[in-house]
Each structure stands twice: as structure tokens, then as C-alpha cells.
């Protein structure tokens, strides 16, 4: 009880100094709890949606991931409906006709498809739709010229009943009038949904009135879903294997699997960044308790003198850590709920409406947050607590502090140097690896060892690096600058720990910047070196081009030639006896002009002949394929061909690396017309001297298709840069949490340092140092610590990024590009961060009463 009272008194006595450490715990716990609440809410919301929409038993086509990309959904025969209706136990049969391979355009030629990556869905309106949506304006669709649009898409694009929309689907384009608006009862998963009457959906989406996408069966009273499924399977007999039969529970699990993979990636990515923030927070807490223990040296010495044992002293410090962890965790749990609500609002702005009234907080979430917060705080306080037990009763007679342990410092330095050297060797080994798998393992080991090594050797580096930075930055400020330098060097271990927190976040920023910049530079070089086409034409949503779209592209003038490219799915039987699934790139002879492809054997031009193909050199080596070999190629949904290997292509490229090629005419020879995959993209070469005219002609030809983009090489390079940039910006934003925690560490260190140096500050003021000079001294000290952390972080990050690029070179991304503008901006930004972090400590130092400060013990 005495230990608890002492700990509570100390905690409350230093509550201001504990506040920033509590914020670090709060942010870390909030990120973890917010992620868990958000993903649990998403899962619960989708569970409810899937439960509302699932039939007792569903009958659909067996899923075939290898089917050709014809733009037409897989179907089941319409004649099956009558057979299913006769099954004992079936109360109702509801056919569905839907497609996700369509685009919807309004009267202003504006694409209504979501920009979040969610699909545009066309489906038939029937009674089953009323489980999940209700028509809140207008009426149900009747006839081929009417449709109902979901309310979220309508609101976002200003569509009202009476407006005309054009639907672009693989079977053909058609127009409809919006006669109703449907609102989701649970959540809109982000898709744009258009409802038609059933015959229209069959004809316009599936391309046949003799087919459906599937059937939903309602079980009669007293018949379970499992029983109904068994009866349907028995009724279908030997053909049951051609269909996917699922109960409502199985359909729900299947749907959850598709959504769950996305949610799991999001969940673990967010938790990963939360882990980085926790790691950074550890440095802050270690520093806080180390400084508090140092400031209470006399007090602890007195406690030892009057009989307190070492275990009691240690328990006292650890209890303070538990109090800090509990307070920070409780606040963090509340902050996590607020963060989850914010994430839901963000998803809403992207089109996925999530109702905050359905916020799901599992009982385990607060427990996880509390355990993480308390455990991390306890872990971080163990070292300072152990140091507190080593304070002797004689320390009560000293003015301040305890003598440094020189032997421990030397051991720490040796360990740090060994870890750093071992990490450096691992990075070198990763850079020289022959395979990405082997190199990735060494890269991970190198990152871990160098990071830990830099943290451990931080005090030694502080003594060296801070002097260099001070010589460049601080000497111009005269005596005040020299005082700031000496303050930063006074306790190298503290400076090293404070800078290490900032170092971690900036190292990751630098590494990712190098990787991202190198990817863009490599892709740009490959485009310059390989792409001879003037234009690249493709769907913005990455769907294949419909026949009508391809026809429109072919109508453009001032074009020398067009090179369509598609992918044919096939199964290859190889000389070593293995059978592999493979996507073959099908194109025409001008492909070689539009995209230069190097060969190591044979001539690429011969690939476009009859019954010919190419294979990449790595694949050929792995399976013993030689030039001139004849491979058995079974086209999925088509016939089997014997194709002669006319070329073995080089793997030294990032464009179509590992790709196999054959002529479109060869593919058409072995595939039925209705199974021929649609064009994925089209290269275009302008007629001589007609580049501008060809660009205008192509854009005019596809003007009715706003989702089609006509890009020249400059546009395509910008697209790649923007895509990488968006990804990096999102990651930087998440890493910003770790950097915020690191900044709090700088603030805390300076604030406690000011308290620790109260008497010294009073003496400096007494001998003539002005308030302004005092504030400047604190700010310069902060800037030096921030720049020290930035220098270590950026240097370490560039080493990691350079090694990662060497691994990417094995995949054809061979250009190393250091983004010096970004590196320089981050480095200079660190100085600004240092200035901001010092504002409050510097203000407090400048406001000290001189006489009271001198009188402080």
C-alpha cells in the first residue's frame, strides 16, 4: 500500500510531464482499437447485407477463374427453372440475371461508375431485391426502356427520375430512362447498381433470353436449407457437378471470403502502422522515465536511506508506468472509437455508406487496447526502473544525478557496432541475391539488424554527428549556438533515444521514396526503350473493351495501324510432362513495332505465323523447352492446338516480363467466336506527320465512351507516377502517426530537460542571458536533435531503399533513382519540426523567475 501511495503521489506530482507520454500511448492504442472497431463494423455490416440477400439455396454456374474474358457473365440454362420448381421442398424459384461487366453513362457523357474500385452492377428487379433495397422514388422497371438506379449513385451524380442513361455492355449498348430510385436498407457496398426488368436484363446483359445468372430457391415450411440442397442435387443427378449449389450460410461465407480478403489487407496494414507507432512510443516512454528517475535521484536516495528496498523502488516506478498505461489506454480506447467513426465517414465519401448506428465494439477490443497500452508502458519502463534500484543511499548527498556507467556504455557501443555491421552485410547479401525470395529474407534481416544497431549505437553517433551538424547549423548563432550544442551533447544516450524515435519514421519514408521513385524511373525507361506506339488506349476501370468500343477505335482516321492485345487462357502440356495454366498474350504482327521485345533465340516476327508461339527464357529453362519444340496448348472453352516455339524472349524487361505470345488469328482458329476474349488494350501508331490529328481523331472516335482513355507516352508516364504517388502518399499519411509520436518525444525530452536544468537556466539568466536568447537556445537544441534523427533516418532509409531496388531489378525494374527533392524536403522539414517541438519548452524556460530558479535544488 505504501508503494502504491508513493507511486500515485509521484504520478500526480509529475502529471504534466506524464501527459505527453500518455498521448503517445493514447495514439498507439487508438490506432489499434480504431482499426479493430472499423473492421469489425465492416464485417458485421456485410454479414447483415449478405444475410438479407442470400436465398435459402442458390443454384449458379460453377465458378471458373480460367474462363475467357468475353465480357459476358457465366450463365445457367433458363430451362433449368422448371426442373427446379418441381423439386420437393421448393416453395419459390427466383431467377437472377446480372453482370458486372458494364459501364453506365449519363446524358452529359459522364461515367457513373465508382472511382473507388467497386463495380458497376446491372441486375434484374424481382421480389428478392426487396430484402436489401426499397424504391423510395418512382416505380419498378417495366419493359426494355426503363431502369431503377441506386440512390447513392443518383445523389452523387445528380441523376433524377426521368433522366436517360446509356448502358455499355458486352452484348451491345442501349439506353434506358430512370423510372425509380432504390435505397439500401443496410449499406451500399460502394457499387453503382442499375435494375432492369428480367427479360431486359437477360437480353441486354447476358446476351440471351434462354439463360440466367442463377436461381434463388426458397425452402418450403419445415424444410431446412441443407435438406433442400440435397434434394436439388439429387434432382439434377449427374449434371449437379456442373452447378454451384450453396445454402444461405455457404453463400454468406463465399461472399465474406471475397470481401474478407480486402478487409484483412486493410486491417493488417493499419495494425502494422500502429505497431510502428507503438515502437516509437516506447522510446518516448523510456526517455520520460529515465529523466524522471534522474531528476529524483536525491529523493530515491533518501528513500533507500530510510529503509526502502530495491524491489520496493522498482515496484514504485513500475506502478507509475501501470498508471500511465491505464490512463493512456482508456483514453486511447475512446479515441479508437472516434477514429473508427472517422474511417467510416471516409469510406462514405468514397461511396461505401456505413451507418454509425451499427458501430460494432467487441468485448475483446477494449481488452486488447488495455493490454497493449499497459504492456508497452511496463516494458518501456523496465530499464529506468532497474536503474532506479541501483541508486545508493549516498546519492541523497549529491546535488544531482548519478555517475555514468562507463563500462556499460562501452559494451553498448560494441553491441551496436556489431549489430549494425551484421545488418550492413545482410543488406549487401540481399543486393547481390540471385532470386527475389532469397534476397527478401536477407533484406528483412538487414533492416531489423541495422535498425536495432542504430538505436543501440545512437549515443556514440550523437557525439559525432551532432558536432558535425552543430558546426554547420549552430556556429552562426555564437555563444547561444554553442550552449545548444553542449546541451544536446550533455547526455548522448538521451539525445540518441529521442532522435531514434524520429529516425524510425523517417527511415521508412526514405526507403519507400527510393523504391517508389525507382519504380517510376524504371517504368519510364522501359517505356522509352520499348514502346514504339504513339498511343495506348484502354478502359479506365481496367475492364476489357466491348466489341462496340473496339469498333469505334477502328473508325479513327490518321492512324497507320492499330495493335489490339488480349489474353487467352489455356493449359500447356510441357516437355517435362507438367501441365500448367497460363495466360497467353494474343496480338497481331504490328505488336513487334509497337512494343520492342528482345529474344534470346529465334525471331519474334515468326510468332505471328500460323500455329506459332513464344515463351520467356526463364520458363523455357525451368521446363526444358527448346526453340522449335511443339507444345500442346488446350484453349479453355476451345480446342487443343499444337503450337511451335518460334522465339524465346528475354526476361530482362519489366514490360510483359514472363509473357507468352501467339497470333490473334491462331487463337480464333481454336476458340469459338462467342468464347474469344475481348481486347484488353489497343496500341495505335499515327500516320507519318499526323500525330496531333491521330490523337484528336481517336479521342473523337471514343467520345461516347468516357471510360476509355487515349494516352500518349507522356500521359502514360504521368499515370504511372500518379498511381505510385497516391500509394506513397497514403503510406506517408499512416507513417505520420509515428512521426507525431516522435515529435511528442522531442517535446517531452525538452520539457523535462528544462525542468532538470532549472537552476542552470536561472544562473544563465543571472549572468546576462536574455529571455530571447534562452528561448533560442532551447529551439536550437531541438533543431539539432531533430536533424540528427533525420540524418540517421534518411541515411538508413536510403540504404534500405537502394537494397530493395536491387531486388526489384530482378523483376526488370533496373533503374535506381534517389528522390533528392523529397529527401531534402524531409530533412529541412525536420528542422521545422524541431522548431515547433521546442515552442512550449522554450516559452517555459524564458518565463522562469531567475531568483526562484537559482534557489531550486
TrEMBL record:
Coiled coil: none annotated. It comes from the Bacteria. Residues 57-77, 105-151 are annotated as: Disordered. Residues 112-126 have a biased composition (Polar residues). GO terms for molecular function: transmembrane transporter activity. Keywords: Cell membrane, Membrane, Transmembrane, Transmembrane helix. The chain crosses the membrane at residues 268-294, 317-343, 363-386, 414-433, 445-478, 499-521, 730-755, 780-800, 820-843. Residues 19-234, 495-696 form the MacB-like periplasmic core domain. Residues 273-393, 734-849 form the ABC3 transporter permease C-terminal domain. Pfam families: FtsX (PF02687), MacB_PCD (PF12704). Residues 127-143 have a biased composition (Basic and acidic residues). Its main location: membrane. GO terms for cellular component: plasma membrane. It is a multi-pass membrane protein. It is found in: Cell membrane. Belongs to the ABC-4 integral membrane protein family. This is Membrane protein. It comes from Streptomyces eurocidicus.
